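Quick one:
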Amino acid sequence: MSEGSFRAYLAHGSRKISVLSFSPTSGKMVQLQDVVVNGDDVPEDVRAGRFMALAVSPDRRFLYATNRTAPYSFRSFAIDGTDGTLTYLGDAPAVESSPYITTDRTGRFLLAAYNPPDRRRRTGFVSVSAINNGFIQPPHQVIHTPPKTHGILPDASNRFVLAPACDGDVLVRFTFDEATGLLNPNELAPIVVRPESGPRHFVFHASNRYLYMLNEYDGSVYAYSFDPRDGAMSEIQIASVRPAEVDKDVNPRAGDLRITPDGKWLYAAVRVNCTIAAFAVDQITGRLTPAGHFPVDKEPRGFNIDPFGRYLIANGLMTNTAVTYEIDQNTGALTRVAETPTMEDPNWIEFVRLP
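Output:
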């Protein structure tokens, strides 16, 4: 991968997306464009979504966002290949409020997980929508899941799709047909975790042989072996992101989970004390070794790692900052090297290397 030109796409609450230039050598960011998703004219009787999720197409030509202010929708943007700025393409209806989206590996389908905001009728869904040249279509498949589905990803083979259900304490597994864009929920049983763990986000290792899942309520990280031939999984370890000073009865509010592109370092956001927990990943066994907790701005709901694996950018939700940390390639330690002021509620961030 050449150094090239990089852009960062940063979501602010449910209202705006900022386009920033990103230096892969210094980690510094400079704002280039703001795109409005929701203005200030949301009706008083409508619950304005506080966060949105972002996803980039595999060919890096399109950015997709979830509009979590009713009426719920998916929003498409074209990415200018020269300067990385965004052009709005259109909206498609969503089933409910979606905190996580991704594309399949071909970029022809959008996969979405849903977490309805009304706790009195909270359930879970996943959906699949076709994408035609960047334009998202209405979902052609919707499947009920256990409650509070909070993530969804395909494996590298594009044959399996997984979705953690935070309030169901399960990781739901589907087979996926990339020709038809249909999920099959009947071939693989869900993976069950300890009660009240709260499965939230997960990542695949670069080898596609391991999977790591972060649990929001107890701060555990489950490490699994993964067989891309049949989707079989086996638990190999349970680690923890809970800081030593946080009592075992206190919810650590574990948030996002990311892994470096080379699969060497795993990072998890811990909102209870505003730290990022680091783990070294054994490339042979897949097991995790704690590498420390590193303080970040309040509070780290969303963060990401640049495509070279040199920097981790953590957004301070309550300080309105996006802070760049250099990753020590030998120890996994994070060192603060740059700070970018942001608008209100910075959360999700994605990176794109321009052609």
